[in-house]
Amino acid sequence: GVHAVRLGSGPPPTSGPVALVLQDVTEARRVEAVRRDFVANVGHELKTPVGALGLLAEAMQGAADDPETVQRFAARMAHEADRLARLVRELIDLSRLQGAEPLPELVPVDVDTVLAEAVDRTGLAAAAKGITIAVGGRPGLVVRGVEAQLATAVTNLLANAVAYSPENTRIAVGARARSGFAEIAVTDSGIGIPRQDRGRVFERFYRVDQSRASSTGGTGLGLAIVKHVASNHGGSVTVWSEEGLGSTFTLRIPLAAETPPDPDSPEPAG
Ligand code: ADP
Questions:
Q1: Which residue intervals define the domain Histidine kinase in the entry (predicted)?
Q2: Among 32, 116, 173, 237, which residue's CB has the most CB atoms within a 10 Å radius?
């Protein structure tokens, strides 16, 4: 894009109508390129499970007289169909969040309810790996938001924490109040994210390691969805991570006026 670098105290070098038009054109081109890439990516992502389903169906026809083989192929078809369903669901979520629909009104939402819902949705996957999810932090926080979107965002963070952690580890999720925001943090002691990838994991379809991600059934859309939820709420999401040690994702959402004051740790002034 066009960058205006300001040196000293004079007027910015790219001010004026010409620079504005240039900036608009560049921005329009960039948006168009992102859209083209996105459609190409979607096509590619859909091709893999659809291709696998076709091959499995063919193989099944060839093995019709062997019920055990048919069972095995049917199980793999179900797995591919699940993956396809998840991808389509996430694409729909993402397009809704990107403003294909008007944003629902922001209302007071209990953070505890959001956390409980997300823990509930990821509990089975965690249990299957012997992973414990510990809920802590300050109870009783209320944010301004859309409960379903917030639950989706925290669910995605927890699902990632489970997917990218070894068996029998612990995940912590909790909220605290800070400068007018609820900070919801999800901490795992998993594989972590290499420094050079940290800035990019919120991009659509970006995965640190394709082979590692596909074995977890990932789509590369989960964090893009979290980022959109955050920005729809006037909040943000950030990551701290250390390879081999683990990761903490922090989602910041504006507190509602309804949040009761905390007598133990008053908000710092300013
Ligand atoms: P995916 O569906 O592949 O998990 P996401 O958008 O949710 O897609 O995440 C993008 C990438 O960021 C993942 O493929 C993974 O490489 C990395 N990642 C996300 N969360 C974690 C985590 N908690 N620990 C380590 N890596 C993570």
A1: 41-257
A2: 173
Residue 258 contacts residue 146 (beta carbons within 8 Å)? no
Residue 90 Cα: closest atom of ligand 1: 2
What would the pLDDT profile of 142-186 be if each residue is shown by its tens digit? 999 999 999 999 999 999 999 999 999 999 999 999 999 999 999
Looking only at Cα atoms, what is the longest distance across the chain?
82
CA of residue 264 to ligand 1 center, whole Å: 36
Q: For ligand 1, pick from 193, 215, 221, 238 the residue to mutate: most ligand atoms within 8 Å of CB.
A: 193
How many helices and strands (H and E) does the chain possess? 7, 7
Whether the CB-CB separation of 171 and 165 falls below 8 Å is answered with yes
ipTM above 0.95, yes or no: yes
Burial class for 121, CB neighbours closer than 10 Å (0-12, 13-18, 19+): middle
Nearest CA to ligand 1 atom 23: 161
